[in-house]
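The following record pairs a protein chain with its ligand, WTA.
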Amino acid sequence: MGSLEQVAPALYPPPKDFASKAHVGSLEAYRALYERARNHPEEFWAEVAEREIHWFEKWRQVFYWDPPFAQWFVGAKTNASYNCLDRHLDSARRNKAAILWEGEPGDQRILTYGELHRLVCRFANVLKARGLTRQDRVVIYMGMVPELPVAMLACARLGIVHSVVFAGFSAEALKGRIQDLGATLVVTADGGWRRGREVRLKDAADEALAECPSVREVIVLRRTGSEVNIKPGRDFWWHELDKEVGEHCPAEPVDAENPLFVLYTSGTTGRPKGILHTTGGYLVQTTATMKWVFDLREEDTYWCTADIGWVTGHSYIVYGPLSAGATVVMYEGAPDYPQWDRWWRIVEKYRVSIFYTSPTAIRAMIRQGDQWPLGHDLSSLRLLGSVGEPINPAAWEWYYRVIGKQRCPIVDTWWQTETGAILIAPMPGATPLKPGSATLPLPGIEPAIVDMEGRELGPGQEGFLVIKRPWPAMLRTLWGDPERYELQYWRRFPSTAGLYFTGDAARVDADGYYTILGRVDDVINVSGHRISTMELESALVRHPAVAEAAVVGRPDEITGQAVCAFVTLKQGHTNYAQVAEELRAWVAHEIGGFARPAEIRFVESLPKTRSGKIMRRLLREIVTRGEVSGDVSTLEDIAVIRRLSVPDED
Ligand code: WTA
């Protein structure tokens, strides 16, 4: 981890008119908040909790820390669904749009807070009528339709844990998650629309359910209207069940530490981790960051382009924005359907004022050409956001210039599934921006950069990003695996024990600005989606032709990283082109289409250390520096490459 001379990047101070109206309008105001949170964290978070959230009963203690297990707002009672809906109903927000939804084919729905509340109450009554209780877990496997947040909020209303599985995941991945959770109910749809084609969700659910004995019933939303298999006694249409219930369903006060949801994410082993979030602290911090980072105002139209199947959608389409009373745009389909201006059409049509997306999407837009955004009136925009991976300064500048017309600050928000809420990001009315940097930690967050020995590093030095103090929205544990939780996040190195280990490398500059450099573990980030190399490898070796596999990330101009798989085949398989095709389809089947390897290289053997570990570092170097020209139809001699490129490993 060397020191690096940095060229000071351009500074973009907050525009004056933006700052004058912002929730936090100056760097001094930010620093005052930050200092207050640092010196009096309990008072600080109690004030935020008091201001942002409705509590049925107040806490006995703000914070209880029995490392590595935290509790926040101990003894308090609240409800996430109540905070996102009911509390808005006795004001003008009752008839304010909560969700402006657009389907990929162009159909539209507008749900006011009053109407969303009605739908959530009805569906919660359906869940009750099916006999579900707080002991149950509900898996939700749906596309981006309003019934997805409805199902989430209905579970939350009753204190039932939900787990949303991204609709791009395969039957196999869905099965693993249902089994790990022991879910009793699955909510899905016949299908969803993506790039003009139907994603057959019910078919995938059926395939998964063949091996999920815990699931008693399945509720199916009719979205595409296509023919699906309905298994009598197990499967029920949403609209049929809806006819049988009433609209009165009070939100149940639950403990602040009542689990709200489990969301699976890739870790460093083949098995995905079930990240567990609880209710009170999560709501406090997702709601507060809507104001701090997105500077949300009553009149904003806010659009986060993420899928609700990932954490960004949980925290910044559903819980944060709805709790804060925002009008949220939600779009079902692909950005390039029917053509590459779909997003800008939506911004123009709904007069979107806050727009939050990923660097991958921005780079894809750059490649398609400026004519797409330039063909639309984007003057409603006032703030832009970025999340999921480091944004390279060139993409940042394009976003700033072509989309924001040099008027809109960009909030580069660093956080993780585990952190629940944004931890490092600008406050757009306060923080001067530096392209490529997520800037400063939010109040209550104390990051540091450390080396392998746990020593704190100074400005300019690259090291591991850690967080020194627990925060309200942090994960509480891994579902069913507290030991793995402890090992993975709190004791990764003996010397970093007690510090939350993010898995990211970063550096901080002399102004205290953080630049995130990427993952240091075996997780690769493709289009902002976390994929574990181990998960990919174990999927590949399950294929009958594969003897061994090693997967590394390769830099990619659009997706940030791309999956590159090194594979050795069993005796007798020599038709490389055909096997490569088969393996791509296999990965799509085992995990999901988004994880499909961009490149498969067949090798005689994999380079290993003397102790038998695959030398991923060497492979990474090969794909990064491209010393070896890759072609799926050739067999590379890794032993030769090893001799040529890296002298002594082990
Ligand atoms: C990366 C997504 C640089 C990082 C919210 C992190 C980022 C992982 C940024 C979490 C950012 C997220 N700049 N890198 N602004 N935001 N990352 O769990 O490597 O899907 O550890 O959560 O994405 O991905 P996850």
